[in-house]
Amino acid sequence: MHGDVQNLVIAGSGVAGLSAAVYAARADLDPLVLEGDEPGGQLTLTTDVENFLGFPEGVGGMELIQRGKQQAERFGATFEHGRIDAADLEGRPFELSLSTGETIRTRALVVATGASARWVGAENEEALMGYGLSTCATCDGAFHRGDDVLVIGGGDSAMEEALFLTRFADSVTVVHRREELRASEIMAERALDHEDIEFRWNTELQTIHGSQEEGVTGATLVSHPDGYPKEKAADGVDVETETVDIGGVFYGVGHTPNTGFLEGTGVELDADGYILPETDENGRPTAETGVDGVFAAGDVADPNYRQAITSAGTGSMAALDAEDYLESIEESAEQTLQATV
């Protein structure tokens, strides 16, 4: 167990966590940043970021994260490897049990643990993620002007990806393992009625072809008239196999917020596990949660935008709210001390 009680722990080292760390460190809160299992978060999988303010020529995702970490360290933030496995938020200070076996106590906590994009298990997806394979059309769609691209999935996320990609791609094909969509009626209609979107029903992505030097160059698809062709192939059923030439693949099968350690703690989560932040007395958004002293930033509380720039904004909000909270409990402690003298 860490001997000292921390002023502020920031869980997560993506853009939201780093932004919170910069603001908190500049306020002399001495934040401790827990980097998690994937230091830097999803942005480290993006080769080029062209829509982050202040970088007219673009910037590499990893470079942006490294710069943010250096900036936070310059002001006094410290970083440690580790993931929160369990959190006791009932007592004060909070107790955080880490994946390293350590326990940390802290007066305030910023949760910036992000949301992990779901992958589909296609061959080569790990090697090509960020090199023509993406989980974010709004982040990477502009790199695929004139390309033929695939969108994998059948829910609202996939329809949103496909509709957005029609602005850039020469053709967009939605690959879905069943013959009907899971998307809401309005989203399904928009995609189905769009002249630049085609559908491959009862089909799944088996292999992505290409290299980190060339990017994505093709894909192998498997299909069966009754759907779920991968399962059928695993059971020995014959499936049809086809290789297509494409320039990009986008996964639209949703995200999973990294909030398992918050279940049962009093921090309110929606049905999908995203944190529901509180509003102030005027109904305006804050970074506060249902537990005093716990704040949320970035994708962990944002199933809609999921952009680096919005994560940075909510990171600063969380740090400012945490600063106000820590000042308030310090003032309360001083008043209690004076009353007993």
Commentary on this structure:
The protein contains eight helices and 17 strands. The longest helix has 33 residues. Helices cover 27% and strands 25% of the residues. The chain folds into two domains: 198 residues, FAD/NAD(P)-binding domain (3-Layer(bba) Sandwich), CATH 3.50.50; 127 residues, FAD/NAD(P)-binding domain (3-Layer(bba) Sandwich), CATH 3.50.50.
* C-alpha Rg (nearest Å): 23 Å
Structural class by SSE content: alpha/beta
Helix fraction by DSSP (H/I, runs of at least 4): 25-40%
Q: How many E-type strands? A: 17
How far apart are the first and last residues' alpha carbons, in Å? 33 Å
Question: Which percent range describes the beta-strand content?
Answer: 15-25%
For the largest beta-sheet, the strand count, sense and barrel status come to:
7 strands, mixed
Overall 3D geometry? elongated
Count of helix runs:
8
Number of domains: 2
Query: What is the fourth-level CATH superfamily of the largest domain?
Result: FAD/NAD(P)-binding domain
Low-confidence stretches: none
Instruction: Quickly name the level 1 CATH class of the largest domain.
Output: Alpha Beta
**SSE string, helix = H, strand = E?**
EHEHEEEEEHEHEHEHEEEHEEEEH
Q: Which architecture name of the largest domain does CATH use? A: 3-Layer(bba) Sandwich
Keywords summarizing the entry:
341 residues; alpha/beta; FAD/NAD(P)-binding domain; seven-stranded mixed beta sheet; five-stranded parallel beta sheet; 17 strands; 25% strand; elongated
